Amino acid sequence: MMPFLQVNQLHVRYDFSSNRDTLNAVNFELLEGESILLLGPSGCGKSTLTYCLNGLYPRELDGEMQGDVIINGKRTTDYRPGELAQHVGVVFQDPETQFCMLTVEDEVAFGLENIRIPKMKIAKKIDDALELVGLMPFKKATISSLSGGQKQKLALACILALEPKLLILDEPTANLDPMAAMELIETIRSIKVQTGCSLIIIEHQLDGWTELAERCVLLNNDGTIFYDGPLRGAINHKRPLLQKEGIWLPRVANYVLPYHNKTLPIPLTLSAFACQAEQYKPAYWDNNIMPKQTYKQALLVANQIAYSKRKKKIIQNVSINIYHGDFVAIIGSNGSGKTTLSRLLAGIEQPSEGSILLKNKQLASWQEKELRDNIGYVFQNPEHQFITDSVFEEVAYSLRLKELSDEVIKTKTMEMLDNCGLTNLKNHHPFHLSQGQKRRLSVATMLIDNQAMLILDEPTFGQDALSNRELMHLLSERHKTGTTIVMITHDMDLVYEHATRVIVMNQGEIAVNCEPEHLWAKSEKLLQQWQLTLPTPIQLKRCCERRGKNVSTPT
Amino acid sequence: MFLHQLNPSVKALTIVVTIILLALVFDPITPALLFVWTITLTFIGGQIHWKRYVLYLLPFSILSFGMLWTTLFVGAPSQNLENVIHLFGLSFSYEALLTALALALRVLSVAALSLLFIFTTDMVDFILSLNQQMRLSPKIAYGVLAGFRFLPMMKEEWQLLHAAHRIRGARGNGYNERWKHYKRFAIPLLASAIRKAERTAIAMESKGFTGDRNRTYYRQFNVKKQDGFFFLCMLITFLIACLISNQLGFLKIYPYHF
Question: Rounded to two decimals, what is the model's pTM?
């Protein structure tokens, strides 16, 4: 059988990075109906490969492309522009920038008009596509009124309407919260069953995808494929490489590996783990890293604060104390008011009711400059915070504002750069750094002031495993020296590993404010209502315990 | 809802032609009649909310009154001392009054015509119709539509940048410092705008968009009889207005005036 897709010795080099190839001798094949996971660290050329596969490159490439991409027995360069859209469809990462029309219906129609489907047939095809992704009730809605998850489903519907044989998903869940991501994966699974199309899934986070595609293709930082085969094989034989390249393992596998019995297959999902749970002891995943905190002094006190925008209440009835040395995780579904709360606490927005005290003084009566010496805030997109033209100046900026001597600035800045692993890049422009480096730099610019409190808005979003590890290391080092950290996150494993306290937001109010252990003890129904899942280690532990009980009480 | 159902391109063309014709005559009666007619038509055929309409018309009214006032009193004093009018303790010549009224009513009339279009036309429909009837290139038409989604995003981005830089302590006092502060926004704002535009372009191309005119349309706009009727209707109204003005002895056609 001839493969549906063949990639032969593909090289891509951009004009702006003339000294290295972004893709380097890439070879692989894909059969019709087959699915693969394409994994690699950020910046390894995954997106470039996508553009090569859907025919955008070499047409739109500022650079050079060598080698062949053959789809359905014909080179991509031999297709007419636009024709390939009927064979290869791509869903991109950012849910905001994939649309050019204003309503759901028009957007799906757009693709069909492009490939000249007659008007009479378009209506039916729109309905079919929306039905597949479950957006039928939103047919007449404007796109801006949809949630992020719904937008990604719409992007999927637009592509499905064109009935491509190959569907490429370029990190489709990177900007979604865990619940929306799980829903999208579920949708894709049912589409795969119904249409039988081939899938190429490009992802950072593997969880949820492993059952859809067993075969994986791994790219390294040089843009070369270093493994092509089943995922389990990669975990068994290439683990050091995976770690070096910063590729995430499935979470279950990651936690099970240290205790894994070599004779059994590595469990990639919880259900796979359940089948061999009796091999493990629940005690493996006891969390004893966190020393119990004895709280003395409140650093920040929020009293009955509320915030509304355009007559809509976003935050209400919120009272919290944040103590010296806390590591607080704020969690909750999208739109529950996490970011707004964090901004109120940082003094970026003013509450419409209630008061916030920092060190027993009203937040509003602090001088802007002094306030910034006490509270640092790291935005979700690090680029927003960059002010100067070099990494060194970026870190030195707030020291210069304080008019310290050059000598002091230099030593302090170099020390900070060293801590963040950015010393070699000190003369680069901040915008030229990789995603993970940008994130670390934005944290460094805040840490240099030695603020008592640091607030971070989803600092680990869409990063590869390596950058994530480095960032969390940096933060926990800071925490040990007594800095109070408040972090918004979706990652329950991070909450489990680092937080001393957790705040669950639900519809603008605080649902729970307690120590993490107490949250895990809540009923599953409550957690589901707040759209939370349990951290992987807790899930593994519970699974073991259930098994243990079954074994010890034979009937 | 008659006006809403007209073909947007034909509607725009009709309005533009009427405005051009209006510019060729110079007297108070024609624009006054046309003004009344346009407003009547807007309310009968458009079913719009009068409060919103008044709000939109208000700035034009102020502009028009300003023109009336300046033409009456700022212009050169009239040589003709026979036809002096005294009103509210002010005095001005009859000719100056005619000129001032003609100018002011022309502004109002043009405003009413534009509002008729704006209040009864969906912008997306207009652009799609320009693409289908006026042969506007699909590249431009769909580009503009994609741009519609960008403006709110840019506003959000601007606010975010502002907050983010404030956190860094980058907020100067004094004009010089403030200017520097805003200048720093330029690069990140531009960078993200370009990136977003590029992503959108790639997504559009991935859906088979090539900018080719040869495409089908889900929302097909056609020119129907009612569109021709509307065009003629406006034209005839204009002619009747001119005739009445002529009968009353006011009409001046432009080339013969100055």
Answer: 0.87
Rounded mean pLDDT of A165-185?
Answer: 87
Q: Which residues of B touch A159 (CB under 8 A)?
A: 206-207
Say which residue the tokens 């200017």 belong to: B179
CA B154/CA B254 separation, integer angstroms: 46
pLDDT in tens, A408-422: 999 999 998 988 888
Indicate the domain borders of chain A.
Answer: 1-80+198-249, 298-542
CATH number, span A1-80+198-249? 3.40.50.300
ipTM: 0.85
A-chain CB neighbours of B129 within 8 Å are none
Beta strand pairing call for A5-14 and A63-71? antiparallel
Residue whose C-alpha is closest to residue A535's, from A226, A285, A247, A348: A285
Residue A426 sits at the vertex; the CA angle it makes with A420 and A427, to the nearest 5 degrees, is 160
Model confidence pLDDT, tens digit, residues A230-262: 998 998 888 888 888 888 888 888 888 888 877
B123: contact with A, CB 8 A cutoff:
no
* Contact by Cβ (8 Å): B52, B125: no
Looking only at the bridges linking them, the beta strands covering A353-358 and A298-309 are: antiparallel
Write the DSSP string, B191-210. Answer: HHHHHHHHHHHHHHHHTT--
Name residues 161-190 of chain A within 8 A of B (Cβ): 162
Average pLDDT over residues A276-298: 72
* Domain-wise residue ranges, chain B: 2-122+223-257, 138-206
The class level of CATH for A298-542 reads: alpha beta
Terminal C-alpha separation, chain B: 42
Cβ neighbours of A261 (radius 10 Å):
10
**Contact state of A368 with B170 under an 8 Å Cβ cutoff:** no
Strand pairing class (A35-39; A215-219): parallel
